[in-house]
Amino acid sequence: MKIFDSMLITDTKAEKEAQISVVIPVHNQEKTISLLLSNIKEILKSTMRSYEVVTVNDGSSDDTFGVLQKEQNLDPCIKVISYNPNKGKGYAVRTGVMQSSGNIVIFVDGDLDISHGKMNDYVKELENCDLVIASKRHPQSKLYAPLSRKFLSRMFNLLVRMAIGIKVKDTQSGLKAGKGDALRAIFRIMLVKRYAFDVELLTIATALNLNIKEMPIEISLERSFKVLDIAKMFLDVASIAYRYRIKRWYHKQITLLSEPESTCSTSEKKLNLDVYRLT
User: Fold this and answer.
1) Neighbours of 93 (CB within 10 A)
2) Do residues 242 and 148 make contact, with C-beta atoms less than 8 angstroms apart?
3) What are phi and psi of 116, to 5 degrees?
4) Comparing 33-47, 108-122, 183-197, which segment has the lowest mean pLDDT?
């Protein structure tokens, strides 16, 4: 058990250098998290690779943390990170990714909205690209959602493509997989903690000229957006566009992280970004 700045990290004898790390942000999901973990672990075992499941309890007010501790006692491959108060999905995913050790890192939503059956296909596809993302707009995807949710999703994606220039057709689906070193480098410089962190992730990946592949997903979305959440997402996108297109802030941060170790702070580990090039 470790405590860092009011953040509790508990792990047992999980694989120190897992081949696959799955990061799951959770908030008030005491009733569903056990089923999700069971589904995820069944898929991971079929890959025949070592794995770890990094769960991040994002300030839950129910007994989510207690359930996660029980699951960890049953499986040493589960790592539990917990903190208060709630800080947002983007913050939770970033925290989990930065605590991961896998050569491949996958992060998935902590609810049961998404089918995880094709996760192995995502892992295999990483042999041909750097980042694989679920896309509701893929022709083979199955999307069950109210018309209003579908309309807002398309309008949001159109806004992102116009404001930032990201070419992917869906930024927000909650299943993404990538090469561990690249994702940890990206999350190290991300700023968005809540609403549009996926957009910032893909913006930095685009700046690094990573090869991004969209894959099909089966997803059921019953919850509607809140007006305030939509407004904050638009504000996040505007901020990302400003940092990317006008200030070129992301490019500067990537350059700093790529500098030789001798010019870096002693507390910063040099990130090997030489295999990627800025655009």
Assistant:
1) 29
2) no
3) -100, 10
4) 108-122
